[in-house]
Amino acid sequence: MQQAAPRASAGYSDAAVYFADVIVLATPPVAFEQLGADYGALMRGKIVIDISNPRVDREGPIADEWLERGTGVSMAEFFPGTRFVKAFNTVNPRNFANPVRDGVRVGVPIASDDEEASRVTAQLVRDMGLDPVIVGPLTRAKEFDRGSPIWETGASAQEIREALGIR
């Protein structure tokens, strides 16, 4: 028998979006347009963390366009009025189970045009046992998109800072 946390509850997507302070988009990007249409009004003003990585084999040629522009900027357009953050997309799923590589915590680059949303996301990263790296505005998320030198490498925060030229 599976159990949930004491304060957890089940419900519909619209209720989850309505009551959430922070929303994590853990769906294929091809669904973002519909999610934005269905729930965008309820998401306005909320922190929305995009952890997605578009793939041509799943999304089609549009994935290349999103990557060319940068997925942070591209995905944010589906959710106007939100406090959009790109983060966690570089973390290999096995790093969530083991957030330490060679004795050093795995780093997570974070990009957003909202400084407070970046700080909230950084705390969530720390709470998960990972090491946050605030990269800067959403336009910089392109530097850690799928296929970048730090994508799914298990890089430390210091290695991410070096690769992205952050002091």
What does this structure look like?
There is one protein chain. This protein is α/β, with parallel strands linked by helices. The protein has a single domain, classed as NAD(P)-binding Rossmann-like Domain (Rossmann fold, 3-Layer(aba) Sandwich). It contains 8 helices and 7 strands. Strands 1-2-3-6-7 form a 5-stranded mixed β-sheet, sandwiched between helices. The chain has a two-stranded antiparallel sheet with strand order 4-5. α1 crosses α2. The radius of gyration is 16 Å and the shape is globular.
Write the layout of secondary structure elements.
Elements: H1 13-19, E1 22-25, H2 32-43, E2 47-50, H3 56-59, H4 62-69, H5 71-76, E3 83-87, H6 93-97, E4 100-101, E5 104-105, E6 107-112, H7 115-127, E7 131-136, H8 157-164
Any descriptors?
167 residues, 5-stranded mixed sheet, two-stranded antiparallel sheet, 7 strands
Q: How many extended strands?
A: 7
What is the overall pLDDT average? 93
Question: Helix segment count?
Answer: 8
CATH superfamily: NAD(P)-binding Rossmann-like Domain
Whole-angstrom Rg: 16 Å
The SS-based structural class is: alpha/beta
